[in-house]
Amino acid sequence: MYVIQIVCQIQYFQYMKSIFILIFCFLGPGVFAQSAEDSVKQTVNRLFTAMSEGDSAGVVSVFAEGAVLQTIAKDGVQKDSYFDFGSSIGKLKKGRLDERISYGAIHIDGLLASVWTPYRLYVDGNFIHCGANSFQLARISGAWKIVHLIDTRRKDCN
After folding, report:
1. What is the mean pLDDT of the chain?
2. Which of 63, 73, 83, 138 has minimal CB crowding within 10 Å?
3. Is it the case that residue 1 has pLDDT exceeding 60?
């Protein structure tokens, strides 16, 4: 009798294991794992949240060491340090800066991601300018980090 109970328990566990494997195979990608695209978006969103909160450390944390920040201006390309950018954000009061983005194209190839985000920038609720951000991210030590950010700025946003 005891042997029959053990055999039944083993069969029950094998049955449950099979069911779990089937559930994971069909639902796993959507339920149990975050997609690479979602993970990349999360990094970009953390940047804009930190900017809105005036969080200097939060801004710096999404960039890879040595990241390049550039702006295309009428007279050429201006370069900025990610650390200086983070420091300038830290001087702003929470809620003062509001950069509203939308996601355009997102391309991922292994450890490289490219993200295009049209945007509108508001300071103290007033429209300042619009343009597009182009991000290059690399997956470093299991986390997406911004290695290059270049943007455009204009007043005509139609």
Report:
1. 86
2. 73
3. no
Is 152 buried (19+), middle (13-18) or exposed (0-12) by CB count in 10 A? middle
Residue 6 pLDDT exceeds 80: no
8 A C-beta contact, residue 114 and residue 105: yes
Q: Give 21 or 103, the one with higher predicted confidence.
A: 103
Residues in Cβ contact with 21 at an 8 Å cutoff, skipping those fewer than 6 apart: none
Helix/strand/coil percent split, the chain, to 5: 40, 40, 20
Which uninterrupted H or E stretch holds 52?
helix 36-53
Consecutive H or E run containing 61: helix 56-61
CA–CA separation, 154 and 128 (whole Å): 9
pLDDT-based confidence at 136, cuts 50/70/90?
A: very high
Question: Of 127, 125, 49, 55, which is closest to residue 91 (Cα–Cα)?
Answer: 55
